[in-house]
Amino acid sequence: MAVESFNNFISRIEDEDVKQTFKEVQKQHRENIDKLASYIQDIGGRAEENLGMKGIMGEIKLNIDIGFNADKEEIIKKAIEGETKGVNMAEKVLRGNLDEKSRDIAGEILHKDRMSVDKLKSLLN
Fold first, then answer.
1. In 10-80, at which residue ranges do the beta strands (DSSP E only) sit?
2. Number of folded domains in the chain?
3. How far apart are CA 36 and CA 45, in angstroms?
4. Chain segment 22-78, per-residue pLDDT in tens
5. The dihedral sign for the CA sequence 52, 55, 57, 63
6. Coarse DSSP helix, strand, coil percentages of the chain, rounded to the nearest 5 percent
7. Which residues fall within 8 angstroms of residue 119, CB to CB, at 6 or more apart?
8. Which domain, by its residues, includes 45?
9. Number of alpha carbons in the 13 Å side-chain half-sphere of residue 8
């Protein structure tokens, strides 16, 4: 869902510096998705590549929450909120029963997501 959310954010932002930061965070999400999908396939699983109903509903809720006239600060705060939820979910996964390789991948993604939160927060300063 993060890639689609950042498409939404990027389309609403006029500030080129903010837009570039959002593109960097989105690129990191794509890299995380590729790494995770590749690992799932390597261990014989099937990686889902669509949002599903939960993701679609999340995008609709995001559009409602932001509204049509959101300013730059509101959009940045919404991006931080979403990234923070992602970090919390990754932390929960890491507390679960994972093999060493899965734990390493989840930990790497968590670290990159935390860096993305910090990068987004720096836009508010």
1. none
2. 1
3. 11
4. 999 999 999 998 998 898 899 898 877 665 655 555 556 655 667 667 889 999 998
5. negative
6. 80, 0, 20
7. 21, 24, 25
8. 2-122
9. 23
Give Cα separations from 39 to 44, 66, 99 (angstroms): 9, 34, 13
Which CATH number is 99's domain given?
Answer: 1.20.1260.10
Question: What amino acid occupies position 82?
Answer: G
Rounded to an integer, what distance in angstroms lies between the CA atom of residue 59 and that of residue 17? 24
Tokens of 123: 């836009």
Q: What does the alpha-carbon distance between residue 65 and residue 73 come to, in Å, rounded to a whole number?
A: 14
Which amino acid, residue 125? N
Across all residues in the chain, what is the average pLDDT?
86
Asked whether 32 and 9 are in contact (CB, 8 A), the reply is: no
Q: What's the residue count for the chain?
A: 125
